[in-house]
Amino acid sequence: MRSTIRLAVIGLGHIGKIYTHLALAIEGIKPVAACDIFEKARLAYAGEFPQIPAYASVPELLAKADFDAALVLTSDPCHAEPFIQCLDAGKHVFVEKPVGNTIPEIQEMVTAINRHPRQVVASGHILRYYPVNTKIKQMAANGEFGDIFYLEGDYIHNLIEQGRPDRFNEALGRNWYLEDEKPMVGGGCHPFDVLRWIVNSPVVSVASMGNKIAFPAMKHEDCIVSIYQFASGAVAKVTALYAPVAPCTPFNNITVYGTKCTVWRDQICFDDKTWQSLQYEPYREKFGHGFEREILDFANAIRTGQPVRAPAKDCAQSEIATLIATEALRSNNKLDIPQVV
Ligand SMILES: NC(=O)c1ccc[n+]([C@@H]2O[C@H](COP(=O)([O-])OP(=O)(O)OC[C@H]3O[C@@H](n4cnc5c(N)ncnc54)[C@H](O)[C@@H]3O)[C@@H](O)[C@H]2O)c1
What we know:
Elements: E1 5-10, H1 14-25, E2 29-35, H2 39-48, E3 54-55, H3 58-64, E4 69-72, H4 80-88, E5 92-95, H5 103-115, E6 121-123, H6 131-141, E7 148-156, H7 176-179, H8 183-186, H9 189-199, E8 203-211, E9 223-230, E10 235-241, E11 255-258, E12 262-264, E13 267-269, E14 276-277, H10 291-304, H11 312-331, E15 335-336
Helix pairs in contact: 4-5, 5-11, 6-9, 9-11
This protein binds nicotinamide-adenine-dinucleotide.
Nicotinamide-adenine-dinucleotide (NAD) is lined by residues 10-16, 35-38, 41, 58, 73-76, 78, 81-82, 96-97, 124, 126, 169, 171, 186.
């Protein structure tokens, strides 16, 4: 592997630009090519990054650009095709969450991962990189909770602006945020994935309730509450709200109840009376939101062969669970969750 990892950025919207700025600032990685099917997005990107050629399709990108790894930062329903095309072309791939937006496409993506075991395939499950969650995961792995029996997490985020007319994507023929975004998948997958990572036990079934009162322009319910059961017996409740009249909840309200202690947000309790501050290593990187740690981890795995913290195949299991949770809301039933193999 050459010393600088050459990246192609696929999907040049809000997140594509964030990752490009990040990749330009980090030593040892370099964005050398870009791609978007939407001309308006390519033109806006070219205005900001004139030195990076932007192609109109992934096949064109693969034919004309020389790169080592792809960042698939396309709209939620558009991850599978570029992901599989890049893996089959021998590239390492980082794919934003959710890994996919339907169960059949995730199954195809997992099959592609299995075809290419030597390539690094990571997913943007950024909450695994947050300092408090890193600490909670270490505590769980060390057995400091005793037996974990109940967990909670929320994705409570006002995303009404995603419905703005200027978010219409002419290449897709729709505003995917309104038509395709499934809040328990697109948002709820963040806290659910981190809870599943902490509890480290297969997720086996789920039941859901919800409504479309606060954000009726969305096709899927903007308010959904799901209760997941793990093989260990632990139970987790996850809420996704896309139109709360409130700021985002601190630390995604991540809460872990064990038989020895409880952690709630950045507080810990060892008895039935007092919360204390949890001691953890704070975030020191230049860029907020954990993106920097994700990309450094991806680059490190490419260079060293060490595993990434958020392998796409493992994260695919979280997305399958949240997709089944969305189905459970429709069918009003508790549903079993298929296992990723
Ligand atoms: N990890 C996080 O915290 C976080 C935060 C926000 C968004 N995201 C995720 O990042 C992804 C991008 O979000 P965004 O807000 O930038 O979306 P966006 O709609 O602004 O941009 C996505 C771009 O992908 C392009 N695209 C779609 N299909 C394509 C294809 N086959 N080839 C090339 N380009 C294609 C679209 O034309 C669009 O310009 C989404 O999956 C979203 O859920 C993650």
